[in-house]
Structure formats: structure tokens, C-alpha cells
Specification:
alpha+beta, 13 helices, elongated, 4-stranded mixed beta sheet, single chain
């Protein structure tokens, strides 16, 4: 079972380039299986963002342009999904209507390599248990080949998988100096230990002011900003209260500060072997620097019987 789970996890994390023509072939089989005609438009794009725009704009083309010019307008979709096509859409379906369609069409997404729980479940019974399941190949292919698919009776859009995908040790989206996810058309997303953050926080860390880390509206992102620039810089703005100071600077000081919208929080300020100071968040029940230091190493708080040298 673990090997089977690992196989499908790797499918979900794949950054291999997809054969979108093959994906379209199986999508058309799915339409046929559902008793529906093939869509009038089948569009290939490089990212989920492009797929979303292409699907909605493809629908607008079908709804507002005669068949004789649909192909030429579709060429504009392929060339510039977010720019030139918008100029071609009739005034009757202007930007307000487009925005509403974009919002209303999120449910048009269905199969992709990252939503493959049921295909993993079903193919287990076919491949491991030997149970024959009719027509499972269509579902399997559409859950392994493309990145994202967008479905409509008249329009089908399929996108590539990302070309870059980075995780932290706990499997959360994370990268300290690059996008955590990047697609082949350049669309990128930035994450810090599973929390989405603005691009400049990763690509231009010097642009983050300590005040930003204290006042940013989203509390989770605020904590990310503090971690990115260093809690020591943030705490310098807050006049922390010293709770306890150990005689060994590598054990450090236990500090308490009042964070905006979060209340009292405790930190351990330590001197590392490189001669730099760091501030590490610790639980509020910590009462001494020694206890907090022990906690950072996962040791029992009955640490007074030991001598701990703190290194970061």
C-alpha cells in the first residue's frame, strides 16, 4: 500500500511536460461516454490561470461570434489569453460580464494530476486486486496526463503541469528564494511553509519592513514576514520584556512581547556559533531561558540536570 500511495503522490507532484493532444483525445472520449458531442473548441495552454481565462473567453467567442470568424478570434486566445482577446469581445459582454463569468466558472475545473484520490483508489482494485473496471482508462489518463482541465459543453481547456514545484520537509509548498510553483508561461506562486505570500517577500526580502511584519492584515502572512526577515529585527521594534536571562549567551534570554492582534508571545533570543543573534518563537508556558532552550531541541523541560549548549 505505501508503494501505491507513493506512486500517486509522485503523479500529483510531477513537473514533467504533458502530452496535451493525448489529454484532449481522452477528454473527447469522456464527452462521448457522457452522451455529449465533442466541444466546439479544445484549447491547450500552459497554466491553470491561462486555462481559466481561455475557457471563459472561448465560451464568449462561441456565444458572440459567428462560426466564420471563431477560428481567427481563437488564434488571439492562443496568442494572448489575457490581453488581445479582451479587445475582441463585443461591448455587450464587457469587462464586468467577463469578471462575473470568471468568478462563476471556478467549478468548471475537474480532473487534474493533483486531484487524483479516486483514480488512485479505483486503479488499486484494478491493478493490485485484479478487479476489472470498465472505462477506467479515461479517468486514469485525465488524472495523470494534464495539469488542469476546464470543462464546458462547448469548450474544453487543458493545461500543462508546473515546471517547478518545491516543498518543505513537511510536504508544504515552500521556497526561500524561488517560486514554490511555476508554470511554463511564467505564472508563479510564492509560498512560505504552506502559506501564500507576495512575490517580493521571496524575491526581494530587503523590501520587507519590520513594520510590515507587525501590521500586515493577515496574521499568518504576518508571521511569515517575521520569519523571512528574522524575528530579531521585528522584536527590536517592540521593546520586549526580559523574562529570564541565562548566564550562557548560547542559552540566551527569554523575552515576552505584545504582538498586534496576537497578544503576548514569548521568544528565546540566543547567540549562535557564528556570533549572530537569533530570536526563536517558543510556547507561552516557558518560564526560563533554559526551559525554552530545551524545548527547541525537543527535550523534557526537567533540564536542570543537564548542561545544554545551544547551537543554531
Amino acid at each position: 500500500m505505501p508503494k501505491w500511495a507513493d506512486k500517486w503522490v509522485q503523479i500529483g507532484l510531477s513537473t514533467e511536460k504533458s502530452d496535451l493532444d493525448e489529454a484532449i483525445l481522452y477528454a473527447h472520449k469522456a464527452y462521448e461516454l457522457a452522451g455529449q458531442p465533442k466541444p466546439k473548441l479544445s484549447i491547450k495552454v500552459d497554466s491553470p490561470l491561462a486555462a481559466h481565462y481561455a475557457g471563459v473567453i472561448g465560451y464568449l467567442i462561441i456565444s458572440n461570434f459567428p462560426d466564420s470568424v471563431q477560428d481567427s478570434v481563437l488564434d488571439s486566445v492562443r496568442a494572448s489569453v489575457r490581453a488581445s482577446v479582451l479587445d475582441s469581445v463585443p461591448a455587450s459582454v464587457g469587462s464586468d460580464s467577463l469578471q462575473k463569468l470568471l468568478q462563476d466558472s471556478f467549478n468548471n475545473y475537474y480532473l487534474s494530476n493533483i486531484y487524483s484520490g479516486f483514480p488512485a483508489f479505483a486503479t488499486f482494485f484494478r491493478d493490485i486486486c485484479g478487479i476489472e473496471i470498465d472505462r477506467l482508462d479515461i479517468l486514469e489518463k485525465l488524472s495523470t496526463i494534464p495539469g488542469w482541465t476546464w470543462w464546458h459543453s462547448d469548450v474544453f481547456v487543458v493545461s500543462q503541469k508546473p515546471c517547478l514545484l518545491k516543498l518543505d520537509n513537511e510536504g508544504r509548498l515552500h521556497s526561500e528564494n524561488t517560486p514554490a510553483i511555476q508554470y511554463r508561461d511564467g505564472w508563479s506562486l510564492y509560498y512560505w511553509h504552506g502559506v501564500t505570500v507576495p512575490e517580493n517577500w521571496i524575491m526581494d526580502k530587503g523590501s520587507i519592513d519590520p513594520v510590515t511584519a507587525l501590521t500586515w492584515e493577515n496574521v499568518e502572512q504576518r508571521r511569515c514576514a517575521a520569519e523571512i526577515i528574522g524575528w530579531d529585527k521585528v522584536l527590536s521594534q517592540l521593546n520586549p520584556t526580559v523574562i529570564d536571562t541565562d548566564s550562557d549567551p548560547m542559552i540566551g534570554q527569554l523575552l515576552e512581547v505584545d504582538l498586534p492582534d496576537s497578544g503576548a508571545e514569548k521568544f528565546l533570543k540566543v547567540l549562535c556559533g557564528t556570533g549572530r543573534h537569533f530570536c526563536l518563537p517558543v510556547p507561552p508556558e516557558m518560564k526560563t531561558a533554559m526551559q525554552a532552550s530545551a524545548w527547541t531541541y525537543g527535550l523534557d523541560d526537567q533540564i536542570n540536570n543537564y548542561i545544554v549548549e545551544v547551537r543554531t
